[in-house]
Amino acid sequence: MAGGKPELLEVPVILGRVDVGARNHTIGGPMSKMRLVQVTRPNGPLEIVEREIPEPAAGQVRIKVEACGICHSDSMTKEGTWPGIQYPRVPGHEIAGVIDAVGAGVAGWKEGQRVGVGWHGGHCGYCDSCRRGDFVTCQIAPQVPGIAYDGGYAEYMIAPAGALALIPEGLSAVDAGPLMCAGITTFNSLRNSGARPGDLVAILGIGGLGHLGIQFAAKMGFQHRCDCARHGQGTAG
Amino acid sequence: MDKEPLARKLGAWSYIDSKTQDPAAELLKLGGAKVVLATVTSGDSDERDLGRSRRQRKINHPGCRGRAAASARDSADSGRRSIVGWPSGSSIDSQDTLSFSVLTGVRRDE
């Protein structure tokens, strides 16, 4: 479809989880294939194709994806509105899964750990922002999964070890996925907003971000929560 | 669609329908908001919601695009208000989000 609305709902989706099916693979075997959803050009269709399962390079891990949230920002990959996207590209940056292979030189992570990857999908480590510890504003190589490299609409994906978040016990992959973008964005902005317990905080919009923001605001103890719903408008996330 | 039941179910203490009410005026009746977390993509809504109060200090902007900063600039100046963008966070912030959510029961709504 040229132009117009994204076709995100044309892929099999179950409540934000990309259902790529349950299939058994022999990891590392010569015929190891995975299924994924890719876009081959701006405004091109979402296509389910098979590819070789990639191997993690130094500093990377391979994740067996269990769930991936659908974010409004995925439409930038679909429609080509983020500058510099190289196609084909696999969308998806609300990823939850299990580490199933670890590349050389990775410390602190091992196979079998449950991990998530979100909008912050890696950073250069040597630009001014990174040297100030502000990785998400990396000036050299801000790496968003699904934009800078292939993301979570796939059975397997590769991610830099520095982009991993450990998923705690008691949180399912389907619940963890959306928290990796819509969740962190509202949680982290609220906790850095300067509001204190008892303050009045208003959440504008009840969409992918807003419905989590309301919960975070309530649980953070902002005594008065107030939600301004604007009907008929899109929400981010 | 009436979103108030969902808002209250998720923990909202009060609800303002900005289609039929003036959000800034309603917030002022409650004492003024310390922070407005804007999750919609329209700049016009920010201007209305920030509007006209010295007691409404700050507006956060995850996911915002376009005209918000320009449209709300004039009203921000006079009250020492600020508009702040917010780009999610790094991987440890994500991990904090997951931990907080599992501890407090924050979940996506189905």
Helix and strand arrangement:
The complex is a heterodimer of chains A (about 240) and B (about 110).
Chain A: E1 13-14, E2 17-18, E3 33-39, E4 46-52, E5 60-68, H1 74-79, E6 95-102, E7 114-117, H2 128-131, E8 156-160, E9 165-166, H3 173-191, E10 200-204, H4 210-219, E11 224-229
Parallel strand pairs in A: 10-11
Antiparallel strand pairs in A: 1-2, 3-4, 5-6, 5-8, 6-7, 7-9
Helix pairs in contact in A: 3-4
Chain B: H1 4-9, E1 14-17, H2 23-29, E2 35-38, H3 43-50, E3 58-61, H4 68-78, E4 82-85, H5 91-104
Helix pairs in contact in B: 3-4
Could you explain how this protein is built, in words?
The complex is a heterodimer of chains A (237) and B (110). Chain A has 237 residues and is an alpha+beta fold. Chain A has a single domain (8-185), classed as Medium-chain alcohol dehydrogenases, catalytic domain (Quinone Oxidoreductase, Chain A, domain 1, Alpha-Beta Complex), CATH 3.90.180. Chain A has 4 helices and 11 strands. Chain A has helices spanning 74-79, 128-131, 173-191, 210-219, and strands at residues 13-14, 17-18, 33-39, 46-52, 60-68, 95-102, 114-117, 156-160, 165-166, 200-204, 224-229. In chain A, a hairpin with a 2-residue loop joins strand 1 and strand 2 (17-18). In chain A, helix 3 (173-191) crosses helix 4. The longest helix of chain A has 19 residues, at 173-191. Chain A starts with 12 loop residues before the first strand and ends in an 8-residue tail after the last strand. Chain B has 110 residues and is of the alpha/beta class. Chain B has a single domain (4-101), classed as NAD(P)-binding Rossmann-like Domain (Rossmann fold). Helices cover 42% and strands 15% of the residues of chain B. Chain B contains 5 helices and 4 strands. In chain B, helix 3 packs parallel to helix 4 (68-78). The two termini of chain B are 16 Å apart. Residues 51-55 and 63-72 of chain B have low confidence and may be disordered. Strand 11 (224-229) of chain A pairs parallel with strand 1 of chain B, so a sheet runs across the interface.
